[in-house]
Amino acid sequence: MYSSDESPRTTARPWLGVAYVLVAATLFSVNGSVSKTVLSGTLSSLELVEVRCLVAGLVFFLVTAVRRPAALRIGLRELGFVIVYAVVGVALVQWLYFVSISRMPVSITLLIEFTAPVLIALWVRFARREPVRRRIWVALALTLIGLALVARVWAGLTLDSLGLIAACLCAVSLAIYYLLGEHGVGRRDPISLAAWSFTLAALFWMARVPLWTIPFGRLADPLALGRLGVELPGWVLVGYVVLLGTAAPFGLTLLGLREIGATRVGLIATAEPPLAGIVAWPVLGEVLAPVQIAGAVVVLVGIALAETARAASVTPTPTG
């Protein structure tokens, strides 16, 4: 995800940092197929994002309370910022992601969502007027060309229009998440920020979908995990989404940042879209055409260039 050219912390265990981030990317990529299965048979996108945010928030609160309880303190002035961050950066990113994957292949949704670094670099260049390396223009061109190949624009709109709009808005929301996150992690412990933002995001959605209206009884029903011929109770799949698809990879990414620095974390994290495509192929039967695969490669090269285009920044961790 979004990164800088800051130097990684000196460490004798760079391999461990790489392992953390690769495991996190793998968990996130599997989460796409699992989430799509849940959305198709148990919970709606609003219900799933609410449960995901609530449980993940409680996990982050528990972790912070054990390791650094004083970090949970928050003032009224900071609370206003965290509310905006939670709604725009956490609640909307996850909901738009779920809407998009329910209507489009998981890998394409992630590919579009991951264009956030390009948007950030352009914002920094034109809105903040901060220096950005010239490679951003190459990154932008590659990203646009790659997305055109993925969408096969010469054949008309081959992707679901609502899913495409949701994915594009998700990229914008994700970019805002990172920009606000740069400010947030500079003021408080990242895990405590995650605790507050995930919990407030859950409360935001509770105003729309009260917790007691969610059909938790359906979680006992078996769900077929795509084309694998495996049936699992819905609560097992939802448990993966909130624990192994959110809390665990989020924490692993933080560990990776500590070991190898933000730039390398961001570059390695671009493995998530192709990994998600590999998982979705046998599980969901989502097969991309050769030209779409070529376009995806072009987009990933553009994203990699964008990741290193900005002179300096702080990288929050992903939530996808």
Number of strands: 2
Helices, by number, come to: 12
Secondary-structure element string:
HHHHHHHHEEHHHH
Report the sheet-strand fraction: under 5%
Instruction: List unreliable stretches of 5+ residues.
Output: 1-11
How many discrete domains? Answer: 1
Overall pLDDT level: 86
Distance N to C terminus = 10 Å
Range of helix content = 55-70%
- The value of Rg in angstroms is 19 Å
Structural class: mainly alpha
Largest beta sheet, briefly? Answer: 2 strands, antiparallel
**What order do the strands of the largest sheet run in, or round the barrel if closed?**
1-2
Shape: globular
What is the structure about, briefly put?
The chain has 320 residues and is mainly α. 69% of the residues lie in helices and 2% in strands. The chain is globular, with a radius of gyration of 19 Å.
Please describe what this structure looks like.
- The chain has 320 residues and is mainly α.
- The protein has twelve helices and two strands.
- It has one domain.
- Strands 1-2 form a two-stranded antiparallel sheet.
- A hairpin with a 6-residue loop joins strand 1 and strand 2.
Task: Please write out the topology.
Layout: H1 14-41, H2 45-67, H3 76-101, H4 106-113, H5 116-126, H6 135-151, H7 161-185, H8 190-206, E1 222-224, E2 231-233, H9 234-260, H10 262-269, H11 272-284, H12 290-307
Antiparallel strand pairs: 1-2
